[in-house]
Amino acid sequence: MFKKILIANRGEIACRVAATARRMAIRTVAVYSDADANANHVRACDESVYLGGSAPKDSYLRWEKILEAAKATGAEAVHPGYGFLSENEEFAQACADAGLVFIGPPPSAIKAMGLKAESKQLMEKAGVPLVPGYHGHDQDPALLQREADRIGYPALIKASAGGGGKGMRVVEKSADFAAALASCQREAINSFGDDAVLIEKYVQRPRHIEIQVFGDTHGDCVYLFERDCSVQRRHQKVLEEAPAPGMTEAMRAEMGAAAVAAAKAVNYVGAGTVEFIVEQRDGGAMNFFFMEMNTRLQVEHPVTEAITGLDLVEWQLRVASGEPLPLKQGELKIHGHAIEARICAENPDNNFLPATGTLQVYRKPQATAFERSAVRIDDGVREGGEISPFYDSMIAKLIVHGATRDEALARLDAALAQTHIVGVQTNVQFLRGVLATESFAKANLDTALIERERAVLFDREPLGLPLAAAASIARTLLDERATNTQGPFSQRDGWRSLGTTARIFAFEFRGETQTATLRYLHDGALTLDVGGVSGPLVMGRLPGGQIELAFNGGRHRIDVYERQGAAHVFADQGATRIAAIDRLAHAGDSQAEGGRLTAPMPGKVVSFAVKAGDKVAKGQPLAVMEAMKMEHTIAAPADGTVDELMFAPGEQVTEGAELLRMVATAA
Ligand code: ADP
Ligand code: ADP
Ligand code: MG
């Protein structure tokens, strides 16, 4: 076994690898960028080496520097994590050339699976079922059009070099094909430097089911069952679970065999994932087709660890050091059910626009044990840390395990309720909403689940004004009691009449001004009148700092954090933000101030959909920006005329930079 490894990554995956290495008494070397000088992954490792600037191309993608760091520290092997250099065959080869073990498959396997079109040609030969489509070399637009017409509509155009849910276009009818092809090729060349595409039948109501495979250097290969990753937004996974609901033993064996055949066709070594798109037929039958192979550890590997009780990073290290696979196929078993939720810095209500900021509050649920635990948290951040625009928007992963799917689901919801983040927008409440949908609860899974449940998932307010206001007031009163700053008989904003004293609180809640009246009765009891609800308010502080509150017929345990002039209220049924009006911070709307259209976050201008002089209608797309691996469309805030474009496509912009000027049409 290795004595020392270098982890060529950051964030949660670097911390994850370091945890297993530590358990196995292997020393670790971290690498880091400017933005990560104090990051958790640096602290999690025994040594660290500085790489350069914050942008990935100046640090985590500089492989000569990483190899030098490995040499200088005496590391014997390099773990690439996922993203960055993990699927770069040149880097894998450079490691070998430098006498280092790349903890992953051989460069030839990465290359063979790197392009979706080429890998499909290989899979066809290996007898792995493919989605009906075209994956040839000839990229003549007329030929591609004929192929799409032959396959039928809706069809999907995919960038062969694509990944991360990018470079895909669904085409509804033949007449739309040419335009979609041009736009897909443009995105492909911009994002991946290669405009080759393939065409697939667009499977309706599909499920994404993938198989975890593992190969060793002795020619053995096993599969560690499946994960269902159907719940996606923008073709990116948000919830993943294992086993896949409704999976039969026969289909599992068939898919497992196909995945192993795929891996063997490229002499695969180490951890890999074969992704299948699954067509659901009436009567419960399912057809599966090869989609792509990811030649690395997957973000969602912990659900497989939870149901098998194994540590896949340990397996990676054993296999990379030449040991045979620790278990044979027949020794692998599924225990219970596991679900993972990806907690991302983003705003679900604004088309999942990535968010940045400081983690002013970051409280996690109580974790239990490590592998196959009931609740596991994988993260690489801590309270006070920054979510910067340079890297992925994933903050943490919550992984739960239960005897049954229902148990795991209930546990995940409870764990999400205990995840308190303030300072950065997140999808935590959105995820709770998804778990609560009928589709998810009944395991009626497919990639359109979020779209289908739109009505109940967006712009939700789980708490409501009365409870939010009661929580904020309770927090204020308890703080006053503790510090004796404002009592019921203080004259400042109270008044007395007929033995009661009242205080009026003004709030901003969901963009509207609201008032609440608190009355102190002569026996010391309180009543609150807010949002059409009126009744006694009883509160107390629990030992851990939580507030216990009884109001409006309910008894609640809540956490209230006062940050940025607002109370951030977390209760069992959800979380919300309510601001006492006198302390309201006037945060400007960064997207549209008058005729200026500014960048909502730092990033790259991908394209403009308009030019100076164009007349535009409210809501019309004007520009596309890319930040944190997501594209975001900037739309016109009103009808008007474009005056001037301030940048050229491809340019980097800072947050708040003016992207273009427009003159609104007078109403
Ligand atoms: P997966 O199926 O594993 O999600 P993708 O093809 O979507 O595979 O890409 C890998 C994922 O890992 C993406 O979500 C990407 O943004 C994310 N990612 C890459 N590197 C890191 C990292 N260091 N920390 C957190 N997430 C990362
Ligand atoms: P990436 O490399 O970006 O992960 P994939 O080929 O794995 O690209 O596809 C990503 C997602 O797009 C899938 O998980 C699925 O939701 C959807 N998708 C891909 N191919 C098809 C298809 N032929 N029909 C319907 N949906 C598809
Ligand atoms: Mg994929």
Automatic annotation (TrEMBL):
GO terms for molecular function: methylcrotonoyl-CoA carboxylase activity. Its cofactor is biotin. Residues 1-455 form the Biotin carboxylation domain. Keywords: ATP-binding, Biotin, Ligase, Nucleotide-binding. It is an enzyme of class 6 (ligase). Residues 120-321 form the ATP-grasp domain. The keyword ATP-binding applies. Gene3D superfamilies: 2.40.50.100, 3.30.700.40, ATP-grasp fold, B domain (3.30.470.20). Residues 584-663 form the Lipoyl-binding domain. Its EC number is 6.4.1.4. PANTHER family: CARBOXYLASE:PYRUVATE/ACETYL-COA/PROPIONYL-COA CARBOXYLASE, METHYLCROTONOYL-COA CARBOXYLASE SUBUNIT ALPHA, MITOCHONDRIAL-RELATED. This is 3-methylcrotonyl-CoA carboxylase alpha subunit.
